[in-house]
Queue: 2 jobs
Job 1
Amino acid sequence: EADIYQTPRYLVIGTGKKITLECSQTMGHDKMYWYQQDPGMELHLIHYSYGVNSTEKGDLSSESTVSRIRTEHFPLTLESARPSHTSQYLCASSERQGSSYNSPLHFGNGTRLTVT
Amino acid sequence: SQQGEEDPQALSIQEGENATMNCSYKTSINNLQWYRQNSGRGLVHLILIRSNEREKHSGRLRVTLDTSKKSSSLLITASRAADTASYFCATAPLYGGATNKLIFGTGTLLAVQP
C-alpha cells in the first residue's frame, strides 16, 4: 500500500456548503493529482501539481480549486457544493524523474462525496 | 473515452481460469500502464510497459503491447477470487510533455467466482 491518505472517506453535505478534501503523502513525491471518477466510469484529471506553489487545471473542467503550499499536502476545495459535484475524488502522487513521464501513480483510497 | 477503451466491459470467470482484458488507444504513446481498483478503493499500479517493449511479465500477469494496432492486453493466469476488481489501462501520450498526465480507459470489471 502506498503512503497517500485522503480524508474524509465519505462526506454527505447540503448544497451551498464549502468543503475541503484532504490529501497527504509521505513519499516526498513532487507530482500530485486529483481525479474525479463516477461509478463504473473512467477517471478524469481535474487538477495537478509539479511541486510547491505549482498547480494546473486538468482535462476535465471543475469548479474546485487546489493549493500546494507543502510538498506533502494537496487539498481540494469546493466553495459552494452542488449536487452535480457528487462523485468520487481520487488523489494520486508520483515521483519526478527528470523529464521522464514514466512514473506510476500512487493513489489514495478516495473521498466519496454526496451533495444533497 | 478520450484515449483508452477497454474490452470487455465486464468479465466473469471461475477460479483457476485465465482472464484476458484488452485496451485500445488512439494516439502515439510513451508507455502504457495497467491498474487495479478494488471496490470503493483507489487504484493500484500493476505493470508498466514502454512503447519499445512488446511483452512484460509480473507474477501471474502478462502484458502485451502492439503499437501498430494501438492495443494492449492484460492476461491474468490461474485467477483467484481475490483478483475480483476493475482493471484500467492508462496511456502516457508521447507528445504530452513531462506532465505524466495519464489518460485512463473505461475499465474492465472482472469477477472471479470461487
Note: The mean pLDDT of chain B is 91.
Job 2
Amino acid sequence: GESVGLHLPTLSVQEGDNSIINCAYSNSASDYFIWYKQESGKGPQFIIDIRSNMDKRQGQRVTVLLNKTVKHLSLQIAATQPGDSAVYFCAEPSSGGSYIPTFGRGTSLIVHP
Amino acid sequence: GAGVSQSPSNKVTEKGKDVELRCDPISGHTALYWYRQRLGQGLEFLIYFQGNSAPDKSGLPSDRFSAERTGESVSTLTIQRTQQEDSAVYLCASSLGAGRNQPQHFGDGTRLSIL
C-alpha cells in the first residue's frame, strides 16, 4: 500500500505564473512565522519571516500574508521560475516558551518551463 | 561566507554499527538544533543546545541517540547500534540568541543509510 508520508501536497504551475502556498497554524499566541525553501538534496533555506504585528511583508518576488483571525499564513511567489521548484514549509514557535519551532509538513512546488 | 557545515554528507553503514555525525554551526550562533528528516516528510526535532545550558533532549527517539556540543561550537550526534529505521537525513541548524523568534540556518545534512 501507499505511504501517506511520501505524498506531500503538490502545487504545479507554469513558468511565469504566480504561486500561492498556504499554511495553517494552530497556536493563536504565535508571534513569529518563517517560510523555508528546501531544494532536493539540500537543507532548508530561510526565505522570509513575519511577526504577528504585521499582516503582510514583501521580499524579492515573495510576499507573506498573515491572517491571525483564521490562523492562516500564505507565501506568494511572483513570476515563478523553474529554480523555485522545491518544498516550501512554514514554521512557528512552539507554545509555552519553548525554543523548539513547529514545522509544517511542506508543499512541493513544481514549476514547468 | 561560512554557513552551517555538516559532515559527512553521506554515510552508509551496516546495521549494528555506531555512527557519529558532525555539525559546525555559524560562528557566534549560540543555539544549535539537530533534526531528522525521513524521505518525503517534515522535520523531526531531536535535540537543542543553547549556550552552556543543559540541552533539551526531549526529541531523541531512544537511548541509542546522544549528542554533545563543545561550548558554542562543534556538535556531534552519535547513534549507537544503528537500525534500518535510522536511515534518514540528519540536519543541523544554528541561530542567534536563544533561537526563539529567530530564523534557523541549516546545513545540507548527512544522508545516513543503514544496510
Note: Residues 62 and 71 of chain B are 24 Å apart (CA to CA).
